[in-house]
UniProtKB/TrEMBL annotation:
Any coiled-coil regions, as ranges: 235-265
Family recorded in the similarity comment: Belongs to the SCC4/mau-2 family.
UniProtKB keywords: Cell cycle, Cell division, Chromosome partition, Coiled coil, Mitosis, Nucleus
InterPro entries found in the cross-reference section: MAU2 (IPR019440), TPR-like_helical_dom_sf (IPR011990)
Organism: Brassica napus (Rape)
Subcellular localization, as worded in the UniProt entry: Nucleus
Phylogenetic placement of the source organism: Eukaryota, Viridiplantae, Streptophyta, Embryophyta, Tracheophyta
Protein name: Sister chromatid cohesion protein SCC4
Length: 725
């Protein structure tokens, strides 16, 4: 009796401190139960330790302390024959601790034990829900180790559990997760297409009132469809999903703003109602008003938020407590998982708008979205304590996952900014973004390991843009050495070949031939049309140099069709047209040459692409000379001279910058060494590979799936082309 009274008193005191927000005193009250000499029933100690662990995970970074409480709870529960719900909660929280500490083998073993227990108890709703929970976490551990078949098996088991209890939202959760794994490994087009169709079928089977209660699942499913379509270069259908994501983000933002305003008003009313001297009539009116506000808040909140507050499950991302307005849950308790934090998803939506709009020349909107996305990321990094002075070695181990998400997203925005600024000939702005990428990489070399290849590619593209062709070839070759992706290697080598051909001497042309020959032979074995387009561009340019004009026309026409039909990349189309216009001029087909060059110039002007405009204007001069149109030639030359002067002014400004030499210098990046780099590499392995956003200059490769740190993708429209023939 004495023990029960003490426990009840301390729990009541802990409730009071938690209600007023004093979490430190709350934990002290609860830990007093575990440390006292008074004997308690095992269940009392277990429940106390579970509550302490949940508080530590939610409000602090003391994961090891929480893990110790949970391991002790698990030992105590071994002597208790039932109490399955407590056992399941303990397994789930302890698994989460192992995940935060990157202890993946112990986590996997623990989850297998939890699944064994779940299969041995009476198969009711609770057992199936916990099976879903454990299978989702187990799939994540397999993905981190790039074990895709085992991950798919675990996800399929979770899908079967969800099917047993006729839970379509959970079925959709597992089906979407399986699609994510298929996209990451992409063994064949048919398997991925089949997974997409399963997602569509299940999503359509869920009633609209339920889908509105699953905003996180909606964003996850739609984003996976974007990744899938971009991987296939199906930009038209990808745009449809990007538009849906953008509309949903705006609608949800307004909804959350309304909910926050209502919550603020509720808080104010509660403060007023706490006054003892409030007249009874006024109290009654305010109470009615409060009831109405609470109903409106409940109507706006997702279904799982009602149980999440009392759940022992921590927020999956980070160790801080976040209101439901700041979370996009994939399912109800006991899953309560997120694919990504809401702010990261919003940033990702902005990024998808940039990726879909940049090839079309929608630079104003893209710049606006880059600014919005970077603002979101900067705010989140500051919350995580990542300022300009922080380096990888300074990060808490438990903060690596969360910080990695935002750092990699930041790199994606920066690389798109570099590509955008290079396209419209804003070289100083491109410099600044590229230097920022370089500085981030040197500060976080393990987390951003995959970005080294991207940075080298962009250094090559910058060098080519400012006329440093030898340096451009060097950086492109170096980039090809930094990836195991055959497709990306091919793209880098094609870039290098274009730079060699632009130099134009015999030795450089020989190096270009050595690169292009093997590349063209492997075109059919590559995974995407982007690589094929880059190879055809370089190969067509080489054939023109060799005066094999008819074969060059065939290859360039094929590449133009890819660039126009599949990639919707206006700059690449413009540069292909310029090559074809020059080719027609070489064949003395002046009518076709004039028509093609006009189209190319129109596109180059829309993109503010001054180098391509100069290239086309020079071709027009040659055309007018062939036709003997002296007046048109002089007028064209005057216009070309103005553009030339503008170009030289921009180049002089770029070359005069303090960053120019370090960017074009034929040297790899230097980075700060991290003592536990191997351990951090294991933690960030999946994130690095998975943050290969479609249409960004990224690396394809395995990555973790599901809801932990997952972006997956493909590769980008790049800075193509030569500046002169």
């Amino acid at each position: 009796m004495e023990g029960a009274a003490v426990a009840e008193g301390l729990w009541g005191l802990a409730d009071h401190h938690e209600k007023v927000g004093d979490i430190g005193k709350t934990i002290k009250c609860l830990e007093a139960i575990c440390q006292t000499q008074i004997s308690f029933l095992p269940l009392v100690e277990v429940k106390t330790r579970l509550r302490v662990s949940a508080l530590l995970l939610r409000y602090s970074h003391n994961v090891n302390h929480a893990k110790s409480h949970l391991e002790r709870s698990l030992l105590l529960l071994k002597s208790i024959p039932s109490s399955f719900d407590l056992k399941f909660r303990t397994f789930s929280l302890l698994s989460h601790c192992y995940h935060l500490l990157a202890s993946f083998p112990p986590q996997r073993n623990l989850l297998l034990k939890a699944l064994d227990l779940a299969s041995s108890v009476p198969q009711d709703l609770s057992a199936f829900l916990w099976s879903c929970n454990f299978n989702s976490q187990l799939a994540n551990t397999f993905i981190i180790q790039a074990d895709f078949p085992s991950s798919l098996s675990a996800l399929h088991s979770g899908f079967l559990s969800a099917s047993h209890i006729s839970f379509p939202e959970l079925q959709m959760f597992f089906t979407a997760s399986m699609l994510h794994v298929h996209i990451m490994q992409w063994t064949d087009d048919y398997s991925v297409e089949k997974a997409v169709q399963r997602c569509d079928d299940i999503w359509q089977s869920i009633s609209s009132d339920k889908t509105e209660r699953c905003p996180g699942l909606f964003f996850y499913n739609e984003m996976l469809h974007v990744f899938y379509r971009l991987r296939l270069c199906d930009y038209k259908n990808a745009q449809h999903h990007v538009d849906r994501l953008d509309q949903a983000m705006n609608a949800l933002s307004h909804k959350m703003l309304e909910a926050q305003q209502l919550q603020d008003e509720l808080t104010s009313l509660d403060h007023t109602l706490s006054r003892y001297d409030l007249p009874s009539r006024e109290r009654a009116a305010l109470s009615d008003r409060r009831s109405q506000l609470q109903d409106r808040v409940n109507a706006l909140s997702p279904s799982s938020s009602t149980t999440a507050a009392n759940s022992l499950e921590p927020a999956f991302f980070g160790n801080m407590d976040r209101a439901w307005t700041e979370r996009l849950l994939l399912s109800q308790s006991p899953i309560d998982g997120e694919w990504l934090p809401k702010s990261a998803i919003y940033a990702l939506v902005h990024l998808m708008v940039v990726i879909s709009g940049r090839p079309k020349g929608l630079f104003k909107e893209c710049s606006k979205r880059i600014e919005s996305g970077m603002h979101i990321i900067q705010d989140e990094l500051i919350k995580l304590g990542i300022t300009d002075e922080v380096r990888e070695a300074d990060l808490r181990h438990t903060a690596i996952w969360m910080s990695g998400i935002y750092l990699m997203l930041q790199m994606q925005f920066l690389e798109n900014k570099v590509a955008l600024e290079l396209t419209r000939s804003e070289y100083v702005e491109a410099q600044e973004a590229l230097v920022e990428m370089k500085n981030l990489f040197t500060r976080f070399p393990t987390i951003l390991q995959a970005s080294e290849c991207v940075i080298e590619m962009l250094r090559g593209q910058y060098s080519h843009s400012v006329g440093c062709y030898s340096e451009a070839a060097f950086h492109s070759i170096e980039a090809s050495k930094l990836t195991e992706s055959k497709s990306l290697q091919a793209t880098c080598q094609a870039f290098a070949a274009v730079s060699y051909l632009t130099i134009g001497d015999a030795d450089s042309s020989s190096k270009a031939l050595d690169l292009i020959g093997p590349l063209y032979g492997m075109t059919n074995s590559l995974s995407g049309v982007r690589e094929e387009a880059s190879i055809l561009f370089a190969y067509g340019l080489l054939l023109m140099k060799q005066q094999d004009l008819q074969e060059a026309r065939n290859r360039l026409a094929k590449g133009l069709q890819i660039a126009h039909t599949h990639m919707s990349n206006l700059q690449l189309v413009s540069q292909y047209l310029t090559l074809l216009g020059n080719l027609a001029l070489s064949l003395h087909d002046t009518v076709q040459a004039r028509e093609i060059l006009r189209s190319s110039l129109t596109l180059a002007k829309k993109l503010f692409d001054i180098p391509t405009q100069l290239w086309v204007l020079s071709s027009f001069t040659a055309l007018y000379q062939q036709l003997g149109e002296k007046g048109s030639e002089m007028e064209n030359e005057e216009h070309r001279k103005k553009k030339w002067d503008e170009m030289q002014s921009r180049l002089a400004e770029a070359r005069g910058s303090i960053h120019h030499i370090e960017l074009v210098d034929k040297a790899r990046l230097e980075m700060h060494k991290v003592e536990d780099a191997q351990e951090q590499a294991e933690v960030t392995y999946g994130m690095q590979a998975s943050l290969d956003i479609p249409e960004s200059v990224g690396i394809e490769g395995p990555s973790p799936a599901q809801y932990s740190s997952r972006l997956v993708g493909l590769d980008t429209g790049k800075r193509w082309g030569k500046r002169r023939v």
